[in-house]
UniProtKB/TrEMBL annotation:
Name used for this protein in its record: Uncharacterized protein
SUPFAM superfamilies, sorted: S-adenosyl-L-methionine-dependent methyltransferases
Family of this protein: Belongs to the methyltransferase superfamily. Type-7 methyltransferase family. SABATH subfamily.
Matches recorded under InterPro entries: MeTrfase_7, SAM-dependent_MTases_sf
One Gene Ontology term of the molecular function aspect: methyltransferase activity
Source lineage: Eukaryota, Viridiplantae, Streptophyta, Embryophyta, Tracheophyta
Amino acid sequence: MRELCSIVLPRNLVVVDLGCSLGENTFIFVFEVINAMSDHSLEVQFFLNDLPGNDFNYIFRSLESFKKMVAVEHKGGTLPPFYVAGLPGSYYTRLFPSQSVHLFHSSYCLHWRSQLPGELDVNAKTYLNKGNIYIANTTLLSVVKLYQQLFQMDLLLFLKLRYEELVFGGQMVLTFLGRKNEDVYKGDLNHLCGLLALSIQSLVQKVQ
């Protein structure tokens, strides 16, 4: 954070967490930035972004207790003035004016696609990836290719949009899942999605 400030020399700092979700993890990144900026005079504006279906009201209700926790952790030390706002919307769309953000952060969110591949019509009589919610052992190689193409398109779009929104010298910190094995049918994410698909199918069968 200090390196970023020395490069950009902003009057105030705009920091965005993309895919903030809700719960205990939501404020971890905010807390780390505040710690890094302690004893600094810059004002920090945080934007917590997620899809409109996220429970932003829960986040806002948690703000006061978070601020009290920050004050206790710093034991009366000087804190940067900071402000937190919610920003509903997909990070596969433009979210900010051009060159207005100093730091983007996203943790374990970019494996979520913007949509299903267009060729996977869930209403079709024969669904090409039946019984699966992602790539699993029974997924056709043609379907795997569709997901790979969509991932490339989504990631390129994401980087293009963030490039337009970052100030000159701004930075991004991105953490997302990768694959250790070239075999697309192996990996922790595939196993996790397979278990999740089985759980969802079990719930559907009970409802039926």
